[in-house]
Every structure is written in C-alpha cells, then in structure tokens.
Predict the 3D structure of the following.
Amino acid sequence: MLKPADPRAERPCHRSRLRAEMVDLMPSLRAFARSLCGNAAVADDLVQDTLVKALSNIDRFEPGSNLRAWLFTILRNTFYTGLRKGKREIEDPDGAFAARVFVPPNQPGVLDYEDFKAAFVRLSEDHREALTLIGALGVSYEDAAEICGCAIGTIKSRVNRARAHLAELLGLNVVDLAELRRSGSNP
Amino acid sequence: MNPPGRRNLAWAVWLQLCSEKKVPKLGNSDARPRFCPLTGHTGHGGVTDTMDVWRTMEVTIGGVRMTAPRGALRVRDMSDCSSGDHVQNNIVKLPTQEPSVPEENANAWQEFSPAGDPGDDFLTRNLKRAFDEVAAEAIPEEWLAMLQQLEAPPPGDNDA
C-alpha cells in the first residue's frame, strides 16, 4: 500500500512559488492602491497592510486559485474599511488632493499626461478602480467583478461611465477618442 | 435547394451507403446511427463532431462534389441549416458564423479593450503610462523581507 504523501514535503516549494507570484504582483497592487488613494504614501501603507493581512491568512488561500484576485480583494476591502472608519486622513504630500481642484485645459485639443492625471483623480472610487483594473492592469472583467464584489455587467457599465466622465472632464468626445485611437498619439 | 429537400437527398445517400456497408456502427449504442453525409450529423449528440471513418469518401450531392480531406473530417449538425447556407467540402458554413465587423466610430468606448491592445486611445494610453510609472519604482525592501517569511518553515515543522 502506498504511503500517503506528506503535505509538509510540498509546502516549501509551494510557498516559494507563492512568494515569487506575490513579488510579481507588487507593482499591480501598488498601482491599484494608488488609484484608490490618489496618494503615493497612503497607497504604500495600504499595500503594506494588505501584505500583513495576506500573510497572516495565507493558510486560507487555496493553491491554484486566483492569487491576484485574492490580494486585490484584500487590498480593496482594507481601503474601504479604512474609509468607513475614517482612519485614513487626507494627506497631500504629492499634491494629488490639490489636483482635484481641477481646472480644465484652457486650450482645447491640447492635452497632456498631467491633464489626464488631474482629471482621473476627480473620478469616484468606483470608477477609478474599474478603469485601473481593466484599462491599466489588464484584469479580465470576470476577475474585476470578483475583486469588486459585483456583477460583470456592473464592471462594464462602470468602465464605460468612467471613460465617458473622464472624456467629458478632458473635453473629449467620441469622435476625438476614435481619432486619437487611429493616430496613436496624444492630442 | 431547400432544407427538407436536401435532408431527403441526404437520407437517400445514407441508405445507399448503408446498402454498401460503408456506414460503420458508431459507439456502443445499439441504436442505428442517424448519419447524414451532407452535414455529417451522426445523431450521437454535439453540434460538431470529427469522423475519421470518412477520410477517403467522396460524395456528390446537389451538384456539389464533397471530398473529405485526408485528415479528420469536421462535420456539423444540419438542424440549424437554412436555405442560405453554403456547403463546401462537407462543411456547412452558416451565415451566422461570419465574424461581425465592429463599427469603429459608433462605439468608441462601448467595449473597452483590456490593456495590451495596439491602437489604444488617449485614455487607455495614459492609464497604462500611469501603471508603468508605478511599476518602474523599486519594491520597498521591507515588503520583500515580509514576503520572505513565506519561505521560512512554520513553527510546527521543526520536528519534521
């Protein structure tokens, strides 16, 4: 009769792989946190809190399941829990909050990255997280829905409304976006 | 030719093949396989199926000469065929299978493509740029040290 495999024998290899995957996900987690917080220092604190929670609950993570969705969900829940408790005070070392006092570009058709960032931080948290997950991080609609705890249709709708709002803030319309897509350059 | 006519003709060919014992018994079922040479439907479920048994077969139906390729023959259920369907090399091509061409201007942001596609617009390009900026930053050492705990053996494993 075969002796059952010792689960401890597989643990080091599994944990080493898990660590490597988590290191790979750090930039995405950081970008997601920054899109939620709008502030680099607060976002890094949020990522660190997420790591602490993830490591303390690592036994709950099922090997083979979606690590990215798991980590992003922890980060998102931590962020919204912090918001509810009012623990995260608004700090503005990067001037990100000041950017919310947004002045639309005074020269129509002349947009740059700074205009984009200033408009982006004016979006609601829902819209920022949807745009970041789908547009910047390339997360699938299914995973984004799992992370945000809503239906896939809701995520699609949020992305569309977020883009519409962002375009409106930047003074762009549908034709402008189509033109920009074809030309592949900033206006 | 309308579908009922085509189906009748197919059945006639099937009967002819049966008389020549070219139709093999399929699977373990005792039921007679409902094989249609026009579309290849075997009656054993599934919209599409692959049949190796017809590799060298040639059939001419309705003026269309159908020669099965050397490789496996893709066949399709004819139940969803219509009079506008196109038959070639034993494969029924349904008009509905043709890919739809998206209108470029009408839905510029109706379906937002995930990151990585060429031809991104202004918004997507800047979203990715924002991510690239964050990704270019070095990961703090304390985070890496924290993750290093994962590789340390849990306290209960010392006796292993």
Summary: The interface with chain A takes residues 104-105, 108-112, 114-116, 119-131, 134-135, 137, 139-140, 142-144, 146-151, 153-154, 157, 160 of chain B (CB under 8 Å).
